[in-house]
Amino acid sequence: MDEKKPVLFVVDDDPIMRRLLSQLFQEKYAVTALDSAYQALEKLAQYTPDIILSDIKMPGKDGLSLATDIAKSHPEIPIILLTGYGNKEIAINAIKLGVFDFVEKPFINCEIRIAVDRAAQFSNLIKNNSAYVRQLRKGAMNMLRSAKRETVLLKEISWLKKLVDLNSPSETQ
Predict the structure, then answer these.
(1) pLDDT, tens digit, for every residue of 76-111?
(2) Distance in angstroms (rounded) separating the CA atoms of residues 34 and 149
(3) Whole-model pTM above 0.85?
(4) What is the CATH classification number for the domain harbouring 18?
(5) pLDDT tens digits, residue range 27-74?
(6) CA–CA separation, 170 vs 154, rounded Å?
(7) DSSP 60
(8) Rg (CA), the chain
(9) Is residue 146, in this structure, part of any structural domain at all?
(10) How many domains does the chain have?
(11) Phi then psi for 159, rounded to 5 degrees?
(12) Which residues pair with 103 in a beta bridge?
């Protein structure tokens, strides 16, 4: 398979969960396993993942704080939050922050795979949309430059015509 794998950050302080999630996704994704929100932010400064899968409850900076920081700097990255302490209030706050999905532990493998695959599709759509917008802007700029050149040429032609009219003998003489 020549196609580049989407990059998935797995952020969890539990080494067993990190390993489980890494193994679950390693065939389809380029997984970067990180043990804290701080480490995820450091890696994010180096390169941008396609998806972030993070636990909510972690020492120091939690998953909701991580999601808040990432939403400010990289709103295009879909974030999936995992929690063993799921409640509606946390889920609602997560969605308000722009979190793509919210999965409760213990999860079923196919459930989390579906969530990550949907996030990867979303990420791909965002990238394609951005590429199309860049192409449209480039085309619009080229058209604008052409229009400006045409305007300049028309002014020059008008000026030359006036010059010719001034320098040509009058037909009434």
Answers:
(1) 999 999 987 767 788 788 888 889 998 888 888 999
(2) 54
(3) no
(4) 3.40.50.2300
(5) 999 999 999 999 999 999 999 999 999 999 999 999 999 999 999 999
(6) 24
(7) S
(8) 28
(9) no
(10) 1
(11) -65, -45
(12) 82
DSSP label at 157?
H
Domain presence at residue 37? yes
- Give the CA angle between residues 50, 55, 58 to the nearest 5°: 130
Residue 173 lies in a domain: no
How does strand 30-34 pair with strand 79-83? unpaired
Walk across the sheet containing 101-104 and list its strands. Answer: 30-34, 7-11, 51-55, 79-83, 101-104
**Tokens encoding 36:** 């804290």
Percent of the chain with pLDDT over 70: 88
User: Side-chain half-sphere of 91: how many Cα atoms within 13 Å?
Assistant: 10
Asked if the structure places residue 84 within a domain, the reply is yes
Largest Cα–Cα separation, the chain: 102
- Strand, helix or coil for residue 39: helix
Name the one residue in this structure whose structure tokens are 């028309």.
154
Reply yes or no on whether the pLDDT at 146 is more than 80: no
Cis peptide before 49 (omega within 30 of 0): no
> What is the domain range of residue 74?
7-129
Rounded Cα distance, 118 and 130, in Å: 18
Structure tokens that stand for 24 in this block: 């679950």
Q: How buried is 163 (Cβ within 10 angstroms: 0-12 exposed, 13-18 middle, 19+ buried)? A: exposed
